[in-house]
Amino acid sequence: MGNLILDIRNYSCGYGSKFSLDNISIELSEGCFAGIIGPNGAGKTTLFRGLTNELSAKSGDIKINGINLKSLRYKEKAKLIAVVSQTIEQAKIKVKDYVLMGRLPYQSRFSFLETNEDYEIAEKYMKLTNVWRLKEKMMNEISGGEQQLAGIARALTQEPKLLLLDEPTAHLDITHQVQVLNLIQELNKKLKLTVLMNIHDLNLAGEYCDYIIMMKNGKIHTQGSPQEVLDYKNIEEVYNTVVVTKTNPVSKKPAVFLVSGQTLNNSK
Known about the structure:
Layout: E1 4-13, E2 24-29, E3 33-37, H1 44-51, E4 57-64, E5 67-68, H2 74-78, E6 81-84, H3 95-100, H4 116-128, H5 144-157, E7 162-166, H6 174-190, E8 194-198, H7 202-208, E9 211-216, E10 219-224, H8 226-229, H9 232-239, E11 243-247, E12 254-258, H10 261-267
Parallel strand pairs: 3-8, 3-9, 6-7, 7-8
Antiparallel strand pairs: 1-2, 1-4, 4-5, 9-10, 11-12
Helix pairs in contact: 4-5
């Protein structure tokens, strides 16, 4: 096992008596590309809110690169964790200025100007994410897929150890879904960046992730490789839906096929 980037031990958090995560434990090493799956209400978003300190822990600990999350101030935390939301701000701001905002955690208390290093780092990640060509355009003038790429570029300028992606393909067509996930996969390998992604699409999770955490009712149902997790029995237990799982003949990753109610009735 490589350097442990994310270490969650016996962690619980939630919204009072309404909903809570219960006894969550996850370990992700440097360079892991992990996905969190589960039906609505499983606890995926709650876990992300715990990871970003929006929710306080009831019990257990979260460590990022060996440092307890509780001990970190905002700027220190932002140097370790970067978050890309599923909806990117459509602000009247140039793409280059939006991406540069990722350098805010590195500015000193009395400094309000970016340094040459900040510009160089922002340029580097704009080029890596293919948004350098859009640098002079306004964020509210570019497409949803391009906004998502700009959001990833801004997150990368924080130079984090852990990149959190909240449904990065939720509002994208299949072309842009593949474009975004291909990019994340490339960055994951090239930068040895540890990635944790909330995602609904089981086939995208199976194809791109090398580790999957399946949740149900605030608990981890199972976790492991895509082949271990995306088994039809696990999926049917968690989603209460009949599926068929096969192996993609090219990637050798699991593929999930839905079966309609009418087809099931006709097969009886």
